[in-house]
Amino acid sequence: MDYHYPAPRSPEGYSSVVAAPQSDLRWLGLGRLSLGAEGARYSSHSQADEMGIDILGGVCQVSLKGSWGEARYPQVGQRADPFSGPPSMVYVPRGTEVTITCLSAPLSAALVRAPSRRETAPRLIPADKAPFEAFGRDNWQRGVYLSIGPEVDADRIIMGETHTPSGNWSSYPPHKHDTDTAHERACEEIYHFLFDPSHGFGLQYLWTAPGHPEPPIQAAYPLHNGDTVAIPRGYHPTVVAPGCRMITVWAYAGENRGWRHWTPEPALERLLRPPEGFGSVEGAT
């Protein structure tokens, strides 16, 4: 089975990229929204899903209406492109009408969906409030913005961005979250990749641990701007080519929200022990 989805070709409007039950995914779906003119609108309904909206570039108004009430965020987004600052995200509960109006064109956004089992509340996480943490060291150092994290009252979705500098590895040391144990939660994941310059590239490696009860995965994919990889299970490190920067828009979903509940690849777990003089070097997404 192919877990790699090339960049959508549609230059305007909404394009569905991947949705369950594609690529063994049970919960997660991702789409891209592009609005090229001020005043252009996109309307949708979350139905039985909760949603995460990541404004990749441009400024918009987000209006929400559901059984919980109404919310209007008059100005969401502050960066011209994904590489010029932290993300602004909106969490959308299930059963909500969503209208996104472009205020500064072009507007680009990534929309994630997952089925929700309970009532929640909407939340705007502006760029200046996006929690940030540095991970790794040496050539596997990167920065993570955990915008829709445990402090947001979501049912399944955890969502953020990883900013990886030139030539570095991410999701490293390799880790997995595909089994429920005392230290691990089974959560699938989606990676959506952006590169600067736009002709930049990277690589994704995906494999399952021996003995996993589901069919094994062993795959490697070339990555280009706008590509997406579905990760139903397994270890999943990535690397960006020297001379390029990479942003990974990622989302988790599972029966339980499992941030920081992952297991490192045993042969490389030693890298999580910091050398003298280093602080935390956790190998998160």
Q: How many beta strands in the DSSP annotation? A: 21
What's the CATH topology label?
Answer: Jelly Rolls
Helix content: under 10%
Q: Which residues form runs of ≥5 with pLDDT under 50?
A: none
Quickly count the domains.
1
Number of helices: 0
State which percent range the strand residues make up: over 45%
Q: Biggest sheet, in brief?
A: 8 strands, antiparallel
CATH class: Mainly Beta
Structural description of this entry:
- By secondary structure, the chain is an all-beta fold.
- The protein has strands at residues 4-5, 13-19, 29-35, 41-45, 49-66, 69-76, 88-92, 96-115, 123-125, 132-135, 142-148, 158-164, 169-170, 175-176, 187-196, 202-207, 218-223, 228-231, 238-240, 245-254, 263-264.
- It has a single domain (15-272), classed as Jelly Rolls (Sandwich), CATH 2.60.120.10.
- It contains no helices and 21 strands.
- The strands form four sheets. Strands 2, 3, 4, 5, 6, 7, 8 and 9 form an eight-stranded antiparallel sheet that branches.
List the SSEs and their pairings.
Elements: E1 4-5, E2 13-19, E3 29-35, E4 41-45, E5 49-66, E6 69-76, E7 88-92, E8 96-115, E9 123-125, E10 132-135, E11 142-148, E12 158-164, E13 169-170, E14 175-176, E15 187-196, E16 202-207, E17 218-223, E18 228-231, E19 238-240, E20 245-254, E21 263-264
Antiparallel strand pairs: 1-18, 2-3, 3-8, 4-8, 5-6, 5-7, 5-8, 7-9, 10-11, 11-12, 12-20, 13-19, 14-21, 15-18, 15-20, 16-17, 16-19
